[in-house]
Amino acid sequence: VSIERFHGFFTPVCDYCEARLPAGESFMEAVDIRKQAGWKSRKDKHGDWEDMCPECQEAERNGTL
Ligand SMILES: [Zn+2]
């Protein structure tokens, strides 16, 4: 997952808490929205992309995720 496509709109979704950002009209716009919101994108251990919102990044740093 990470960016969901729905009726032509692209919505960034946190893979940990399922928080969502406002949808973009293109994949690139959604990537931009995600970057501006301070989200991180990385590959998980299976090689799939996952997105993490700032709250989940913080929780991971604190070891409470
Ligand atoms: Zn999250």
Report on the structure:
The structure is a single chain. The chain contains two helices and four strands, in the order ββαββα. It is α+β, with helices and mostly antiparallel strands. The strands form two sheets. A two-stranded antiparallel ribbon has the order 1-2. The protein has a two-stranded antiparallel sheet with strand order 3-4. The relative contact order is 0.22. It binds zinc ion. Zinc ion binds next to helix 2.
Structural class of the helix and strand makeup?
A: alpha+beta
Please give the radius of gyration in angstroms: 12 Å
Series of H and E elements: EEHEEH
Q: What overall geometry do the principal axes of the alpha carbons give?
A: globular
Beta-strand content: 15-25%
Strand order of the largest sheet: 1-2
Number of helices: 2
What brief labels describe this structure?
single chain; two-stranded antiparallel ribbon; 2 helices; alpha+beta; about 60 residues; binds zinc ion
Quick recap of the structure?
By secondary structure, the protein is an alpha+beta fold.
List the helices and strands and how they pair.
Elements: E1 3-6, E2 9-12, H1 27-36, E3 40-43, E4 49-52, H2 54-62
Antiparallel strand pairs: 1-2, 3-4
Bound molecules: zinc ion (ZN).
